[in-house]
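Holo prediction — pyridoxal-5'-phosphate.
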Amino acid sequence: MAINNGIKQDRVSVFANLQHAPPGGPFALAAEYQHDENPNKVDLVIGAYRDDNGQPWQLPSVKEAKRRMNIESIDHEYLPLRGNTDFLDAARTLVFGPTISQNTVRSIASIQTVSGTGANSLIAAFLQRHAQPTNIWLPDPTWANHVDIWRENAPDVNVRWYPYYDGYNRRFNLDGTIKALRTEAQEHDAILLHACAHNPTGLDPNREGWREIAVLCEEKKLFIVFDLAYQGFASGDLDRDAWAIRHFATHPDVEMAVCQSFSKNLGLYGERTGALHVMALIESPSPSADSIENHLVDLQRALVSMAPRLGSQIATEVLTSSELHAMWRDDLLTMSGRIKAMRQALYDELVRLKTPGDWSHIVEQTGMFSYTGLGSDDVAMLKKKYHVYMLPSGRASICGLTTGNVRYTAQAIHEVVTRGRVENDR
Ligand SMILES: Cc1ncc(COP(=O)(O)O)c(C=O)c1O
């Protein structure tokens, strides 16, 4: 038998048929950016807040919470399987407000999760197992991971799309959404809604639009999965960003889940801090909420046992101290304010340069991202020639803009857009 490098030639790896996985979207681009040695490079891919020097920002409220917690004294015991109870109570009140949280007609089951991604995964698996929706309706477009999360965790549920984005008018497509759901959604299907700061478009329904969607969801008995990754980060106002969820909760027959993340609004990205809340119709709150929680705990136990400890303790400290809460509200205004200022600066520069087209959507969109309207060729050229990185869809993270690079970025966009024109005119 031939032996090569110590491996017998008739042996074949169990992974012999493994294909090379295609590089993973934003993370592959982020790696390319890291290796780019051009001093002018601009990272508009990053899904994390950066300060005006392009650096990660530790929120002062979080810093103060850690100081107060005397972090060295904290032990590393397991959390209970459901998670940190104080954290869950505070997190639930943050989403629903005090009145709904204490509602006795519909009770809310809550479990701590591995941040927002873990909450999305858990509800997908839970619905497949216990509600068996025929379809999950996702907005087109959506955060790319939603598709993978549903395919991996609920393979029996069909992924369907509702037309969220009206590319011609660069608006949220309310009519298209209503029409698709009215004509094609089946009773007890699930629908995913971004509660605020839709990723990637930065476009949310207005309150009238939310009301219409809520009525339709109730009529069609759809189960709503709210993804709440940007509460307070979008507008700077925690209550305003939770308005849609609280509005849906006023509909007596609506059942829903909320996937809550503290990655962006507390800057706890790597601490994987989040929760899943499930609001179901029940006669007698305690046993039913308990049984939902028990099943959530069982499912999550098989995957990760329980969510991590430290982030939930930091979050609890901030959420339960009135002083730290006030500091946090200021931090949210700092982050959302800087993003708004950068939107305005980019827009002003493009107008000053007389870049062809209407760029007002950049200031009208909210949250971390702008759907710039640039095509994949423009994006490719921005990267190759100007070292400005964004997703091929034209999604740009406004957090990557600073007072130091916004003019360069606008100039690069201007040159790419006008060069395209000159070439087309030839
Ligand atoms: C829409 C949306 N949902 C969920 C998440 C999940 O974030 P995390 O798992 O860090 O909480 C993100 C992160 O970018 C997001 O944009």
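READOUT: The chain has 15 helices and 15 strands.
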